What we know:
Elements: E1 5-7, E2 13-15, E3 19-20, H1 27-40, E4 44-46, H2 54-63, E5 72-77, H3 84-98, E6 105-108, H4 115-127, E7 134-137, H5 141-150, E8 157-161, H6 169-178, E9 181-185, H7 193-196, H8 199-208, H9 212-222, E10 226-227, H10 234-239, H11 250-257, H12 272-279
Parallel strand pairs: 3-4, 4-5, 5-6, 6-7, 7-8, 8-9, 9-10
Antiparallel strand pairs: 1-2
Helix pairs in contact: 1-2, 2-3, 3-4, 8-9
Bound molecules: NADP nicotinamide-adenine-dinucleotide phosphate (NAP).
GO molecular function, one term: oxidoreductase activity, acting on the CH-OH group of donors, NAD or NADP as acceptor
Keywords: NADP, Oxidoreductase
Domain NADP-dependent oxidoreductase: 17-260
Amino acid sequence: MSLKTFTLNNGQTIASLGFGTWELDKEEICVPAVTQALQTGYRVIDTAARYMNEAFVGKALTESGLKREDYHLTTKVWVTDFGYEQTLRAFDKSLKKLGLDYVDLYLLHWPVEGFRESWKALEKLQDEGLTKAIGVCNFEIDHLQALAASSNNKPVLNQVETHPLFQQRALLNYMNEQDILLEAWSPLGRGDATLLTNPVLQEIASAHGKDVGQVILRWHLQRGSLAIPRSSKPSRVASNFQIYDFELSDDQMAAINALDTNQRSAGDPKDPEWIAKLMSMPIPD
Length: 285
Ligand SMILES: NC(=O)c1ccc[n+]([C@@H]2O[C@H](COP(=O)([O-])OP(=O)(O)OC[C@H]3O[C@@H](n4cnc5c(N)ncnc54)[C@H](OP(=O)(O)O)[C@@H]3O)[C@@H](O)[C@H]2O)c1
């Protein structure tokens, strides 16, 4: 099984593993980590206006020597910039910070009020070629349905918290029916010890001569999801990429599927307190 790329509902292809950059907000940590990721072979890099590292990510991309068409850059509009005009302005700022002419994917960061107006701005940016594709994050089924009712443009993907302890099965099934790719954020459960020392995962890892992180990332791949693990440690940036040389059996996939506790480790898009907290955090200029 190769599974090196996924095909999006707009016909574009995307590498099936990416690199996350949340919390890599210091230049001396972010630039080397993204540089190493690109040298290792990651071609999908995920940032966001909210991560306050677009300039560092852009620096690593520009200095990598890679041709522009050889990497895929995602960024996101933050919730306090929702609304049509505000989103267009926020995109302009992101593009300047990144130092790029276009991005490959522009996402709505959370489903807060105003997302339909922002989506119209994303459609305009796509029409102008400033982003090659558009998508969403943290959308539940009803958010996706609401978007579909107001637009003919489907998101190519929905980036949501997903890992063996929180598997998003109902959402995944719905998105499979709709041909919307699931991109897994916190694919390693943020390095949570409960997950990484889980005996079922440890046993599967030792059967393949792999580590638990690699087994989890392989599980995401085999269920057809794009994981974007983050690490600031060179050894993990490298090891997390070594997931194409082994295959989990059906029994091993089933054993991991059975670990689901349906408990989020981060914010719930339906929780008004969480949304209010996000809305209270504008991005400083
Ligand atoms: N759209 C959204 O709302 C949203 C929300 C959250 C995240 N994201 C995106 O998704 C990306 C990934 O999610 P995340 O950063 O929250 O979590 P993650 O990738 O699941 O976990 C990162 C944490 O795990 C550790 N780690 C990495 N590889 C490991 C391994 N092989 N073994 C043990 N520990 C390991 C890292 O520590 P070291 O640095 O010490 O290796 C780091 O503390 C983010 O960086 C961001 O780009 C999007």
